[in-house]
Write a structure and sequence with these properties.
Blueprint (H helix, E strand, L loop, with lengths): L1 H12 L2 H14 L7 H23 L2
Helix pairs in contact: 2-3
């Protein structure tokens, strides 16, 4: 039961909607010189995927 709850919580926290919202906010606040916004977004998306995979593994989802 707990595993199912953790899976549901993880799916909600790491939803595409939350991903887009977080990446947009970070991208607005962080400016990396010499990189355009699209490149910064690609970097943030790659980090998101790594973090999501890490937490899903730790939660056993």
């Amino acid at each position: 039961m707990l595993k199912g709850l953790m899976g549901t919580l993880a799916e909600d926290l790491f939803s595409d909607e939350n991903r887009d919202e977080l990446i947009k906010e970070i991208n607005e606040d962080v400016d990396i010189p010499l990189l355009n916004e699209k490149t910064e977004e690609k970097i943030l998306l790659a980090l998101w995927k790594l973090i999501k995979t890490f937490f899903f593994k730790k939660l056993g989802v």
